[in-house]
Amino acid sequence: PDTTTVSQYGVMRIAGYLLSELAQRYGTPLYIFDRATIINACQHYQEAFRQYYHASSVRIIYAAKAYLSPLIARTMAEQGMGLDVVSGGELSVAHHAGFPMENVSFHGNNKREDELYLALQLGVGRIVLDNWSELERLTRIAQETKKTPHVLLRIAPDVETDTHRYLQTGHAASKFGFPLNNGEAKAAIHAVLQEGRLHLAGLHAHTGTMLRETRPYEECLERLLDLATEVYEETGWWPEEVSPGGGWGIETADGVEVPGVYMLAQALQQTMERRLADNAALPVPTLIIEPGRSIIARAGVTLYRVGARKPTPGGITYLFVDGGMADNIRPALYGAHYTALPVEQLATPGEEVCISGRYCESGDMLIERVVLPQMREGDLLLLPTTGAYCLPMASNYNLVPRPAVILIDEQQVWQMERRETYTDLLMRYTE
Ligand code: LLP
Predict the structure, then answer these.
(1) Please, where are the H alpha helices in 148-254?
(2) Which segments constitute the Orn/DAP/Arg decarboxylase 2 N-terminal domain (predicted)?
(3) What topology is assigned to 51-291 in CATH?
(4) What fold is seen in the domain 3-33+298-427?
């Protein structure tokens, strides 16, 4: 036998399950979420923020766009988290899961009329309005349905962030929010107050995602509180809640360190205290924080099976896996860095390879360069930290069925999404 590929130690487990057995049972590519890691992340956030805030003055809302399924929604509810949704689809999953609607915030920059009706009908706790059209649309619907939705206005606070261009959302030219620095934000607050149809609960901003410093959050919160103070002096309105959004980063294969979440909690508390020192008589607004990635990314891994190893005369050796850009577009779209591990410990010499997918694109690379023991057809490869924004952005490119998704803990495996079949694909065609 070719002993060079016989595994030496041979096992890699998550929550006690052999990954090779999970791959056998559910097929590959397979997305695996570890329940304990999700719960830890929620508790970690809550503990960090409760060091600096009373439990009643901070709300932590999971940004469902990072990954949502009914079971994840129920897990978030059990952990006392709120939920941030951005579409009728996400809202429907939350509703189907029995998520308490009063703890749901409905975000987005172009919510359709039917989505706003649905949100009101289901009794969503907060609607975050992005622009004048949305504001008018919701006001009209509130009038018609005789409801008084609680809203936050999303502000573009003109804060720069040190993250990929596609992941910045708080700058002056951002597509999101009422611009602060041309007076529109203030005008929108006045308009809501004057109209009186909507209950203006507070102000919201989100400056970007994959942030690794507290500065943008501090600047953002300062600007929201300064705006609120000006409006207070003009009208007597004061926010019940303020939110600098989500966006806290995670450590990835690029090796940049991310400070602990408690640093964020501390920075926000200090900013709030400093900014409100002159308004001591006013109630401190509830802080709302909306983490997505930093709750779910580390809990998810992807298992792929190697289909071929192809050295090229151009010097690159490819390792082809059975998934790729359709289940994880992030490397192609943002230059995101991942690393990979062979599931079985191989005694082969190390080599530099490019982990490439099965899709008909040269840009279909999950990892451009990584050193791995030489792998061959049939071996299993694991990509850690793929829990956020991979599956939600997955497509059926090349008409490849989307992978199965499981959640595991030491007692149980839940199949959250079954692998798509050719029948699923065919069902969408009507001619
Ligand atoms: N709140 C708001 C208003 C947001 O727009 C977002 C993310 C979050 C919270 C959660 O951000 P997080 O904590 O997950 O960073 N597809 C991109 C990420 C887009 C995030 C959009 N908004 C990616 O794969 O990196």
Answers:
(1) 184-195, 215-235
(2) 36-297
(3) TIM Barrel (3.20.20)
(4) Lyase, Ornithine Decarboxylase; Chain A, domain 1 (2.40.37)
Q: If you take atom 25 of ligand 1, which residue's CA is the nearest one?
A: 389
Residue 379, exposed/middle/buried by CB under 10 A (0-12, 13-18, 19+)?
buried
State the amino acid at position 392 in one-letter form. P
Q: What is the ipTM of this complex?
A: 0.99
Where does the pLDDT of residue 270 fall: very low under 50, low under 70, confident under 90, or very high at 90 and above?
very high
Nearest CA to ligand 1 atom 22: 209
d(CA 65, CA 393): 9
Neighbour-count burial for 20-53, b at 16+ CB within 10 Å, e otherwise: bebbeebebbbbbbbbebbbebbeebbebbeebb
Assess whether pLDDT exceeds 80 at residue 6: no
Quick one: pLDDT band at residue 172, thresholds 50, 70, 90? confident
Annotated binding-site residue numbers for substrate: 293, 330, 334, 361, 389
Task: Please state the atom number of ligand 1 nearest to the C-alpha of residue 206.
Answer: 3
pTM of the prediction?
A: 0.95
Ligand 1 pocket test, pick from 72, 161, 209 with the greatest ligand atom count within 8 Å of Cβ, gives 209
Domain boundaries, the chain: 3-33+298-427, 51-291
Structure token pair of residue 88: 């009728």
Q: How far is residue 103's CA from residue 161's CA, in Å, rounded to a whole number?
A: 29
* DSSP assignment letter at 285: P
Q: Output the residue whose Cα is nearest ligand 1's atom 12.
A: 247
Say yes or no: do domains 3-33+298-427 and 51-291 share a fold.
Answer: no
Mutational test site, ligand 1, from 109, 293, 385, max ligand atoms within 8 Å of CB: 293
What are the pocket residues of ligand 1 if the criterion is a CB atom closer than 6 Å to any ligand atom? 63, 65-66, 84, 107, 167, 206, 209-210, 245-248, 290-294, 330, 334, 389
Instruction: Reply yes or no on whether 42 is catalytic.
Output: no
Residue type, 302: T
Closest CA to 40 of 83, 75, 84, 82: 75
Active-site residue, selected from the candidate residues 42, 220, 354, 360? 360
- In angstroms, the CA 405 to CA 391 distance is 9
- Whose Cα sits closest to atom 9 in ligand 1? 246
